[in-house]
């Protein structure tokens, strides 16, 4: 398996624009997680899905953030409108048990 | 509620010296414990995990960690540091048998001096 695949690896966008981050989990994994990593706040769990259903979105910072998982092999994290404080590395991870496998992340810069 | 603390946000060791990264946890029930490593511009990679079997857990790249319930600790060690060990290390704790309740520590940045 190729592991968790995220796209794009880097994204630079202007404040106010919509940003969509994409994730393909490892086949057979039934959990999918979205994390955000910043120097100030470390690694934060934003939302996670189990069998494509959102279970806990209490980490989503505000209504500008939304996540979907239309099927077992694809998830998106959308920010609309984006703000400079959203600049961070966003990780997707998938799991089917006691450990998670992380993608390489998307580095988002909002200018 | 679970929580994880990592003593020392930055640790420097000489090449060939012992690596010791500290992790303490709090949990109301027996936890699962993990150490992850993050190399520059990469995602997190599992080093090792404790799931209530042997208290001394061996992981990849020569790392190991010992679960000490009396001290609520899960420190990570490696006898001899290599330059390639320079990275960010995260301790994490979960409750139960699935990953969905994992809490990550703030991380420790390891530098290896030649």
Helicity range of chain B: under 10%
Strand content of chain A: over 45%
Q: Level of helix content of chain A?
A: under 10%
Largest sheet of chain B: 6 strands, mixed
| Discrete helix count of chain A | 0
Mean pLDDT of chain B: 90
Shape of chain B from CA axes? globular
Radius of gyration of chain B: 13 Å
Distance separating the two termini of chain A: 36 Å
Order of helices and strands of chain B: EEEEEEEEEEEE
- Quote the beta fraction of chain B: over 45%
Oligomer: heterodimer
Written account of the structure:
Chain A has 111 residues and is mostly beta strands. Helices cover 0% and strands 57% of the residues of chain A. Chain A is built from no helices and 11 strands. In chain A, strands 2, 4, 5, 6, 9, 10 and 11 form a 7-stranded mixed beta sheet that branches. A 4-stranded antiparallel beta sheet of chain A has the order 1-3-8-7, with no helix packed on it. The N and C termini of chain A lie far apart (36 Å). Chain B contains no helices and 12 strands. Chain B starts with a strand and ends with a strand. In chain B, the strands form 3 sheets. In chain B, strands 2, 5, 6, 10, 11 and 12 form a 6-stranded mixed beta sheet that branches. A 4-stranded antiparallel beta sheet of chain B has the order 3-9-8-7, with no helix packed on it. With 114 residues, chain B is mainly beta. In chain B, strand 10 (87-95) and strand 11 (103-104) form a beta hairpin. Chain B has strands spanning 3-5, 10-14, 19-21, 24-26, 31-38, 44-50, 56-58, 64-68, 73-78, 87-95, 103-104, 108-113. The model of chain B has no long low-confidence stretch (mean pLDDT 90). Classes of the chains: A mainly beta (111), B mainly beta (114). At the A-B interface, strand 5, strand 9 and strand 10 of A face strand 5 and strand 6 of B.
């Amino acid at each position: 398996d190729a592991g968790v695949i995220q796209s794009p690896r880097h994204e630079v966008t202007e404040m106010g624009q919509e940003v969509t981050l994409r994730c393909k989990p490892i086949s057979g994994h039934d959990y999918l997680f979205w994390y955000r990593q910043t120097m100030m706040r470390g690694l934060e769990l934003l939302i996670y899905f189990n069998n494509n259903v959102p279970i806990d979105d209490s980490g989503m910072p505000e209504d500008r953030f939304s996540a979907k998982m239309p099927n077992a092999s694809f998830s998106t994290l959308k920010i609309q409108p984006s703000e400079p404080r959203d600049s961070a590395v966003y990780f997707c991870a998938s799991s089917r048990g006691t450990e998670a496998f992380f993608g390489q992340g998307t580095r988002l810069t909002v200018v | 509620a679970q929580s994880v603390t990592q003593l020392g946000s930055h640790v420097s060791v000489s090449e060939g010296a012992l690596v010791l990264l500290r992790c303490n946890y709090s949990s109301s029930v027996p936890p699962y414990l993990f150490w992850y490593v993050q190399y520059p511009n990469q995602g997190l990679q599992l080093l090792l995990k404790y799931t209530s079997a042997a208290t001394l857990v061996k992981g990849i790249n020569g790392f190991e960690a010992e679960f000490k319930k009396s001290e609520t600790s899960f420190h990570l060690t490696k006898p001899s540091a290599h330059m390639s060990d320079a990275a960010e290390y995260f301790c994490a704790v979960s409750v139960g048998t699935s990953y969905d309740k994992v809490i990550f520590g703030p991380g420790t940045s390891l530098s290896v001096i030649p």
